[in-house]
Write a structure and sequence with these properties.
Strand content: 35-45%
Order of helices and strands: EEEEEEEEEEEEEEHH
Distance between the termini: 60 Å
Largest sheet: 9 strands, mixed
């Protein structure tokens, strides 16, 4: 049986604050909870998000680890959540002291809007070596701003100004934006320019 004890900690997300529609984005989940050898973490996933992959965090590399995407529906503060992500980790030894990275989540947004991932407080559990539940007092949720595909200058419009900005990035090595890599191949070059031209012509 799991018994709540007075231990305290935090769980929070850390990741990209900006994200482009249809591009892969990621964030890490970190905790300051100590003395745990198992956890069951649940995250509400906003509508319009596709979960691509969930990986072990760097501080639990030797742990057993699994995840499931559960099709469930929630409405919270006028926001819709159509999935719940379940992440389970079990280890023989507790992770090191201090802030610990326990999971890396990769996702792809399908809509352009601000998205907030929410930790399900009621279902999330951390367990110590004596099989007692560790009470987590604070949770921090994570929001990302999602831009439209082709919105190179990130002004929420896709127009000729994006074409000019992309040309400058390619020709003068001006700093690229997260939305510059239109074909998502890891570099910003003429192929991205061709994609943006085709996008603007088809509008």
């Amino acid at each position: 049986m799991l018994i709540q004890v007075s231990s305290a900690g935090n769980i929070w997300f850390y990741g990209d604050k900006e994200c482009a529609q249809n591009h892969k984005c990621s964030f890490t989940i970190r905790t300051s909870a100590d003395n745990f050898i198992a956890f069951q973490l649940y995250i509400l996933v906003p509508e319009g998000v596709e979960i691509i992959q969930v990986e072990k965090g760097k501080d639990i590399r030797e742990w057993a680890f699994t995840y499931n995407v559960l099709e469930e529906y929630y409405e919270i503060n006028e926001n819709v959540y159509d999935k719940r992500l379940e992440i389970i980790g079990i280890g023989k030894e507790k992770p090191p002291a201090g802030t610990k990275e326990i999971a890396l989540i990769t996702f792809k947004p399908r809509i352009s809007k601000n998205l907030t991932f929410i930790i399900d407080r009621e279902s999330t559990k951390f367990v110590d070596p004596n099989e007692r539940e560790i009470k987590i007092n604070r949770f921090y949720n994570h929001s990302v701003r999602v831009y439209r595909y082709g919105d190179v200058n990130m002004d929420n419009e896709v127009d000729v100004k994006d074409l000019i900005r992309l040309e400058r990035i390619i020709l003068t090595e001006e700093e690229s934006t997260i939305t510059s890599d239109l074909n998502n191949d890891g570099s910003v070059n003429i192929l991205d320019l061709v994609k943006l031209i085709n996008l603007l012509v088809s509008v």
